[in-house]
Amino acid sequence: MAGESQAPEAGAHTEGAMEALHDAAQGGTAAAHATEAAGMPQLDFATFPNQIFWLIVAILAIYFILTRIALPRIAGVLAERKGTITNDIAAAEELKLRAVEAEKAYHKALAEARVEAQKIAAEARAAIKEDLDEATAKADAEISAKTAESAERIAEIRDSAMASVDAVAKDTAAEIVTSLGRPVDAGAVAAAVEAQIKGDA
Amino acid sequence: MAEEAHGGGIQIHPMDQFVVKPLFGGDSVGMLTPTNVTLWLAIAVGVITLLLVVGTRGRAIIPSRAQSVAELAYGFVYKMVEDVAGKDALVFFPYIMTLFMFIVTANMLGLVPMSFTTTSHIAVTAVLALAVFITVTVVGFVKNGTKFLELFWVKSAPLPLRPVLAVIELISYFVRPVSHSIRLGGNMMAGHAVIKVFAGFAAIAAVAPFSILAIVAIYGLELLVAFVQAYVFTILTCVYLKDALHPSH
Predict the structure, then answer these.
(1) Which of A28, A44, B6, B116 could disulfide-pair with B36, CB 3.0 to 4.6 Å?
(2) Contacts of A70 in chain B (CB under 8 A)
């Protein structure tokens, strides 16, 4: 490259032998330099200042971009994420605790309700029993009252029946005596019937 | 050029891809000349900015794809520094992150066809390695004073052996930047050169299928190498830093 471009240049200079010689020498070194570069451009020291200068510029640019913007931002994002995750786990833990508590409260309420229900049932049973007892007592009293009344009426009926029997017996006896053709002595008949009934009784 | 002897007009110039050329014509490469080095360094800076700044602009709790990659890179390097060099080395995390991001991006960009691989140049890797070397040495002396020299005085070895070991340790210490830089530059250069050689052979119809398969295989390998070399450079930096912070063996 450098050698090829410089070689015709060396040919163009034909003013003085010394100068030509000088140029040829220069071309020769340039050509040698070019082959060396073609063989191993890494060892072409002429490019070193350029590479080193731009490398330092690039490294400094990257360093400032990283320290000023990128790294604090990424660190912030990572810390924020870590915080969010920790908070979420804590919140989940708390919710779990609350759920356990709620379950406990539910069970407690259930047990209380059951006790309450048993109490109410017992009360109801007692109230019913009381009512029933009262009603039974009342019914018993009524029954006994009715029985007494009935007994009274039965006695009454019996008395009236007895009286009727008396009358009927007297009448029947008088009729029988009459049909036998004998004069009826009403008083005697009555006395006789009464005596008969009393004797029966 | 031995390859030119194949004839048939095959021109294989595996090293041409590494030539530093001015971007806007001209022959001389001065210190401030914008060259292909400048262009690809700028692209590397642009890609890193795109990934780490534009990619994370959402600051999302649930990250986007670009943000995930940025966080992955951050976590990867952060954990490496913490695990290898210890918690007190985290002050240097931005510095090491810069190194890692630059090397991995430059290596990957080098695999783009027609691109220029900045990290294949010893000038670049030597500056990176020397920066690490100087940083580590300065940190070692600032943090530990003369106790830093205990790094070379192996207390666990028997006393007569210690001076010998000290010489060996001292040599190995000063060889560090050399191996550190040549490992990276050499790997990059060799892989790219081999791909180029196979690409040159692809012009011969008889071997073209094999050549193309070989390019694919080596390209895959080079992807791995590009990452692994960035990783190795970074982890060695962490190891050296650990020596500086805790010099006693």
Answers:
(1) B116
(2) 52-53, 56, 70
10 Å CB burial of residue B122 (0-12, 13-18, 19+) is: buried
Is the domain of A77 the same as that of A146?
yes
The verdict on ipTM greater than 0.95 is no
- Report pLDDT digits (tens) over A64-122: 999 999 999 999 999 999 999 999 999 999 999 999 999 999 999 999 999 999 999 99
Query: Which chain A residue's Cα is nearest to B44?
Result: A58
Dihedral sign (CA B21, B26, B28, B32)? negative
- Chain B neighbors of A62, CB-CB under 8 A: 44-45, 48, 98, 101-102
Task: Please answer yes or no on whether B74 and A69 come within 8 Å at the CB atom.
Answer: no
Residue A105's alpha-carbon distances to A100, A110, A112, B63, in angstroms, are 9, 8, 10, 42
Cβ–Cβ below 8 Å for B37 and A59: no
The pLDDT of residue A137: 95
Q: Indicate if A31 and A65 belong to the same structural domain.
A: no
Task: Compute the distance between CA of residue B249 and CA of residue A189 in angstroms, rounded to an integer.
Answer: 161
Q: Residues A196, A149: one domain?
A: no
pLDDT the model gives residue A10: 41
How large is the average pLDDT for residues B45-72?
Answer: 91
Is-contact B111 B216, C-beta < 8 A?
Answer: no
Please state the rounded mean pLDDT for residues A147-151. Answer: 93
Interchain pair A78, B52: CB under 8 A: no
Q: If you ran DSSP here, which 8-state letter would residue B82 be given?
A: I
Listed by start position, the domains of chain B span 2-245
Contacts of A119 (CB under 8 A, 6+ apart): none
- Residue whose C-alpha is closest to residue B242's, from B87, B99, B97, B98: B87
- What pTM, to 2 d.p., does this model score? 0.70
Which pLDDT tens digit goes with each residue over B79-111?
A: 999 999 989 999 999 999 999 999 999 999 999
Could you tell me the CA-to-CA distances from B127 to B89, B107, B177 in Å, in that order? 22, 16, 9
Q: What is the pLDDT of residues A14-73, one digit of tens each?
A: 344 444 444 444 444 444 444 444 568 888 888 889 999 999 999 999 999 999 999 999
Q: How many domains does chain A have?
A: 3
Supply the range of the domain harboring residue A90: 47-158
Task: At B119, list the tokens.
Answer: 């990290």
Beta bridge partners of residue B35, listed in sequence order: B22
Residues of B in contact with A66 (CB under 8 A): 48, 52, 94, 97-98, 101
